[in-house]
């Protein structure tokens, strides 16, 4: 059965124990199935200083449950879940709610000195942005007591069913907290089809850790940011809203980066972009997947994706043929952006996370690190198409991968395994489960899709796609 992200069911099929002596060291391997994706929890294998998965489906740690339902102690991190938790536990302040958040929201945070949005922030009273382990539920918290927005908690949630974002506000100004769903004030920043607003890789204006000094390092704490963070860590916060945060034991220094607590990699701002970027791209993919024209246009999208990533891979006649396909679907030209628009996605809004939707010029090249949102969506389209098209699945298996996966040379024998690995770590492991895996392992180049997936298979995939939709006949 085809894997869909919104429906994930857990099945423990086997637990194998090697060694019967409970007092001795044991190697325990558990096998978990997420629909048709079998996961292995092997404990991993050491390669240099890095603990690596043994196979591309090895999550190393044992996951008790996938998409584990929140216990009574913590809220389920959705709008409905948080609202229910507030009511059931008689929570009347934002601070009380923050102190009850699950662990993967206590460590995955950024501090913002200057914000483009509503509300106030400063060096002494920065806003706290929580992005969680996977970027699917975001929170924006004021720490300045005289801020008019102090008792308003802005949140965003990705709907995994239909790919849309809901931007809502928990209002703690009265005796009983209320939830304002999609208030009009959100549209100015986040757009008519709202999406998060966050800095692109190497450029996070106003965020602690965005390099204020000249130089090539985009993520680097300034002296004053490091000083203020250390004050907050030591308890000189001037607000009780910082108390729930979990910090690593590092001493923060000018020119350094903040390492996320309980995280194998930990570079805060790079991790934040991975979380928000993958969530955004998954939402876009879900929206186009639900469009009636999507299945007919997958091959064309991948060919135009190559033209976007590499350039000059299509002849003028081939471009004209693809343009005709898009025009037949109601488009106005033959570009990748226009095809997205035909499928219901305005990339100028959906991909421009670094700009205010209604006030700034769009920049669609928002970067996770080694790749952009176009590449994220194209990866999911290729993964989806390979499930339906055995020929594509075969050529992915036939194309060898060298030299392994970042830091783990034995991983990913072929491009299909590389794709499966990237899909697992960016789009299938979510919530508490991603947090548990990332404590011991974090794929540092998962977002590198162009060089690790599309370039190696170009010589086989591009001709096949052209032949399949008869583009070659137009050359």
UniProtKB/TrEMBL annotation:
Question: Which UniProt key words apply to this protein?
Answer: Heme, Iron, Metal-binding, Signal
Q: Where is the signal peptide?
A: 1-21
In Gene Ontology terms, what is one molecular function of this protein? metal ion binding
Q: Which residues form the Cytochrome c domain?
A: 158-330
Which named protein is this? Cytochrome c domain-containing protein
Does the keyword field hold Iron? yes
Q: Which organism is it from?
A: Aquimarina spongiae
């Amino acid at each position: 059965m085809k894997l869909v992200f919104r429906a994930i069911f857990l099945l423990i099929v086997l637990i194998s124990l090697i060694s019967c002596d409970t007092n001795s060291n044991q190697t325990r391997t558990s096998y978990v199935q997420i629909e048709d994706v079998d996961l292995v929890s092997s404990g991993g294998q050491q390669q240099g200083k890095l603990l690596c998965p043994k196979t591309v489906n090895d999550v190393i740690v044992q996951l008790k449950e996938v998409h584990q339902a929140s216990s009574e102690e913590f809220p389920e991190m959705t709008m409905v879940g948080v609202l229910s938790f507030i009511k059931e536990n008689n929570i009347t302040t934002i601070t009380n709610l923050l102190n009850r958040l699950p662990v993967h929201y206590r460590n995955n945070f950024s501090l913002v000195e200057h914000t483009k949005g509503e509300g106030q922030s400063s060096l002494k009273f920065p806003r706290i942005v929580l992005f969680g382990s996977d970027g699917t539920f975001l929170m924006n918290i004021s720490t300045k007591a005289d801020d008019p927005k102090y008792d308003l908690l802005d949140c965003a949630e990705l709907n995994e069913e239909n790919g849309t974002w809901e931007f809502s506000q928990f209002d703690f100004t009265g005796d009983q907290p209320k939830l304002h769903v999609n208030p009009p004030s959100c549209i100015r920043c986040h757009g008519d089809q709202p999406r998060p607003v966050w800095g692109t890789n190497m450029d996070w204006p106003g965020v602690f850790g965005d390099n204020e000094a000249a130089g090539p390092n985009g993520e680097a704490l300034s002296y004053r940011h490091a000083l203020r963070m250390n004050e907050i860590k030591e308890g000189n916060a001037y607000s009780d809203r910082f108390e729930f945060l979990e910090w690593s034991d590092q001493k923060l220094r000018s020119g350094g980066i903040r390492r996320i607590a309980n995280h194998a990699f930990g570079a805060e701002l790079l991790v934040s972009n991975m979380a928000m970027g993958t969530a955004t791209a998954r939402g876009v993919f879900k929206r186009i997947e639900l469009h009636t024209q999507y299945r007919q246009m997958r091959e064309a999208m991948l060919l135009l994706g190559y033209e976007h990533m590499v350039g000059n891979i299509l002849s003028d006649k081939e471009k004209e043929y693809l343009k005709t396909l898009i025009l037949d679907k109601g488009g106005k030209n033959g570009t990748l952006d226009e095809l997205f628009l035909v499928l219901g996605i305005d990339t100028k809004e959906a991909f421009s996370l670094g700009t205010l939707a209604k006030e700034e010029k769009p920049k669609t090249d928002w970067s996770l690190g080694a790749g952009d949102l176009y590449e994220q969506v194209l990866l999911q389209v290729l993964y989806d198409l390979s499930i339906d098209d055995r020929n594509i699945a075969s050529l992915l298996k036939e194309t060898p991968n060298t030299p392994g996966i970042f830091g783990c040379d034995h991983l990913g024998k072929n491009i299909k395994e590389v794709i499966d690995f990237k899909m697992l770590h960016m789009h299938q492991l979510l919530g508490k489960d991603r947090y548990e895996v990332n404590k011991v392992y974090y794929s540092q180049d998962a977002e590198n899709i162009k060089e690790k997936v599309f370039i190696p298979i170009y010589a086989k995939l591009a001709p096949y796609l052209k032949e399949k939709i008869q583009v070659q006949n137009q050359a």
